[in-house]
Write a structure and sequence with these properties.
Layout: E1 7-10, H1 15-21, H2 25-36, H3 42-53, H4 57-66, H5 69-72, H6 77-86, E2 90-98, H7 99-108, E3 116-119, E4 121-125, E5 132-138, H8 149-160, E6 166-170, H9 173-176, E7 187-191, H10 198-203, E8 206-208, H11 211-219, E9 221-226, H12 230-243, E10 253-260, H13 265-271, E11 287-290, H14 293-297, E12 302-305, H15 312-319, E13 328-331, E14 336-339, E15 342-345, H16 346-354, E16 357-363, H17 367-371, E17 376-381, H18 385-395, E18 400-405, H19 408-430, H20 435-456, H21 469-481, H22 483-496, H23 503-511, H24 518-531, H25 539-548, E19 576-578, E20 584-586, H26 588-598
Parallel strand pairs: 1-2, 1-6, 2-3, 6-7, 7-8, 9-10, 9-12, 10-11, 12-13, 13-16, 17-18
Antiparallel strand pairs: 4-5, 14-15, 16-17, 19-20
Bound molecules: 1,4-dihydronicotinamide adenine dinucleotide (NAI) and 1,3-dihydroxyacetonephosphate.
């Protein structure tokens, strides 16, 4: 399962310290080095080392007391392990050393005993006291007693844990073996901070003498934003504010934020802003735009999907096999796709096609207002809390308040469906009606948003979600100040004036390259309603869809009535309605022709 975090293996032996304690340091070190340099079989070296050490149980107790775990660890290893654990990475300890010496270390590092693979000492026992009396060798049946034991231990771990990536960290040849066998580790990091072994240094894919460099490199999530429209730019700006300067302080995020910009990458890199979609607002000195989406995601740990919904599938196909294993995604896109199997949310699409976890960020977030740092709220809908927490840190700003919500599907459907209701709100404005009528649309819209989301995912979607920023908050904001509202108002005015204009024409004219999501979403949702015979249960959605496609006049927007088919039945004859200026408009034919020409609802 690709969404599982990668496993990491680290090694700490401690046998040489016990030898020093027992007064045979040099001889034992020599035998350790022979095994670690690969010139003596591991089991022979272990046997000879134990013979030399020959400790009694009380020697062992005294040794453990004199050498508490903290004193036995190389500098930086605890911080490294803590950092990885915080990221949800499973840590194992695989060692040719002995459990008796290693268990206190494992518990100090928070590594469960079930994740310790090490050798066992064999003791002679006193029949009367039941106490161990004398060391008589070691258990040769343990995997770690032999060369190739470490890759075998990893293979065993992988059998019961479907990790995408396993990294081995160690200083000896037997550690390096972990990557040299199929089914072992994916990457070996050589450590030379205590003993530097040339053979290990030469063959390690990554070699370091300082664990703090690993803490730094491994703890820095690299962020890529996929999309460069208005909201993508506002989101990038927040992220960049949170990551700027972090590269120097070994903190959680890498300083640079990469943004995929199909066409404005040069302008973004030259001027620091997107002159087409988000003019006049600087994204941040640590933002770098790239023209290729593959380049944007290469090495990225956190992928922020923010593009008009109809393009996401094509981009996911392009990214197949290009995303770093273990990466996490978040979708800021509002929209859905309808396939033969039924509706598919954008986060589901990302999760299924790329095999990575995907949260969502939804809320009342008009891009320009967020760019101007006006207080805004959003929720992060998550299935995996650890991912949700990382993204909350990435986005949270004093002016951008993020809450975590364990209802990703409810949140995403809110963001998607409110775009349909916003079209209705725009029609109300185009009809020059006042707040009462708009409130009626908002109320009924919210009810249908909840009804639709719960009908699709009855056991997952929560009622409370609709009271969050992603629900009523976003609905109100978009019905007052969104692009869908604005274009629908102009579309209604044009229709009322007798010179109807197409949605795509108005989109080009008014949004200047930004994209309208509501019309295609209305068509997509209507496909679901029609396929499931739900049209009467969602009269506002259905009425808006009929208006959008020219089958009803915009003045019908308030004629929805639950349980009644009256406003929903398509008319046989064109409707003839009085025009506001006293003339007569033939609604059906010209608007149907306009709708056919829009192409909204077609996925790329
Ligand atoms: N603008 C806003 O205030 C907010 C938008 N959203 C949602 O975020 C998503 C992205 O919106 P924006 O960033 O505002 O984008 P936008 O509406 O400004 O559209 C421009 C974006 O579309 C991309 N694009 C245009 N043609 C394309 C093609 N053929 N293939 C691939 N990409 C293409 C452009 O490269 C650019 O990234 C949408 O789902 C929107 O509903 C969510 C909250 C606020
Ligand atoms: O989703 C939005 C605000 O949260 C923006 O909506 P519009 O696409 O209608 O502008």
């Amino acid at each position: 399962m690709a969404s599982r975090p990668p496993g990491t293996i680290t090694v700490n032996d401690g046998l040489d310290l016990l030898a020093e304690f027992m007064g045979c340091k040099e001889e034992v070190e020599e035998l350790t080095n022979k095994a670690m340099d690969g010139v003596m079989p591991l089991n022979t070296s272990l046997e000879e080392r134990l013979n030399l050490i020959n400790c009694s149980p009380s020697d062992l107790r005294a040794f453990l007391k004199a050498h508490p775990p903290a004193s036995r660890l190389a500098p930086g290893v605890r911080e490294l392990i803590r950092t990885l654990q915080k990221r949800g990475v499973d840590i194992y300890l695989i060692s040719g050393g002995f459990r008796e010496i290693l268990i206190p270390i494992a518990s100090y590092l928070g590594i469960p005993m079930s994740r310790v693979f090490a050798n066992r000492m064999n003791w002679q026992w006193d029949d009367e006291t039941g106490e161990p009396t004398k060391l008589v060798g070691f258990d040769v049946s343990q995997l770690t007693a032999h060369n190739q034991g470490k890759p075998q231990a990893i293979a065993r771990i992988r059998e019961s844990n479907p990790y995408t990536t396993v990294v081995m960290v160690g200083d000896g040849i037997t550690d390096l073996e972990a990557v040299q066998v199929s089914g072992g580790a994916d990457l070996f990091i050589g450590y030379g901070g205590v003993v530097a072994r040339p053979a290990v240094a030469e063959q390690a894919e990554w070699y370091t003498c300082d664990y703090s460099s690993l803490v730094f490199a491994l703890s820095c999530y690299k962020v890529a934003v996929i999309g460069s429209g208005a909201w993508a730019c506002a989101a990038t700006r927040m992220i960049a504010q949170n990551t700027v300067g972090q590269g120097e302080t070994a903190s959680e995020f890498a300083d640079e934020v990469r943004i995929w910009a199909r066409s404005q990458h040069e302008a973004i890199n030259e001027t620091g802003e997107n002159p087409v979609h988000f003019p006049g607002i600087s994204l941040g000195p640590n933002v770098r735009a790239v023209a290729s989406v593959e380049e944007a995601v290469a090495d990225a740990d956190l992928l922020v999907f923010c593009m008009p919904h109809q393009y996401v599938q094509r981009v996911c196909k392009q990214l197949l096999g290009k995303v770093k294993p273990g990466a996490k995604a978040i979708s800021l896109t509002k929209g859905m796709r309808v396939t033969r199997e039924g509706p598919q949310l954008i986060s589901q699409m990302v999760r299924r096609s790329l095999g990575i976890d995907c949260c969502v960020l939804m809320g009342a977030n008009i891009a320009e207002d967020v760019g101007a740092e006006q207080v805004s709220e959003a929720v992060i809908g998550y299935s995996d809390l650890a991912s949700g927490e990382v993204f909350a840190k990435l986005f949270e700003r004093p002016y951008f308040r993020v809450s975590l919500l364990p209802d990703p599907m409810g949140a995403e459907l809110c963001g998607t469906l409110k775009n349909i209701v916003a079209l209705g709100a725009g029609m109300v404005d185009g009809l020059d009606l006042g707040p009462n009528s708009k409130a009626a649309i908002i109320r009924q819209g919210l009810k249908e948003m909840r009804g639709f989301a719960k009908a699709l995912f009855p056991s997952a979607v929560r009622d409370d979600t609709f009271l969050e920023s992603c629900g009523v908050g976003d609905l109100v904001a978009t019905c007052i100040g969104g692009r869908n509202r604005r274009v629908a108002e102009e579309w209604t005015r044009a229709a009322l004036s007798g010179s109807p204009r197409s949605w795509s024409d108005l989109e080009t004219d008014l949004l200047k390259g930004q994209k309208l999501q509501g019309v295609s979403t209305s068509n997509e949702v209507q496909e679901v309603l029609a396929a499931r015979n739900w049209e009467q249960r969602f009269p506002l959605f259905t009425t808006i869809n009929r208006i959008v496609n020219g089958h009803l006049p915009p003045s019908s927007v308030l004629d929805y009535k639950e349980g009644s088919r009256a406003p929903l039945v398509e008319e046989e004859e064109p409707l003839v309605l009085p025009r506001r200026n006293g003339g007569v408009a033939h609604w059906l034919q010209p608007l149907a022709a306009v709708a056919a020409a829009t192409g909204f609802g077609n996925w790329e």
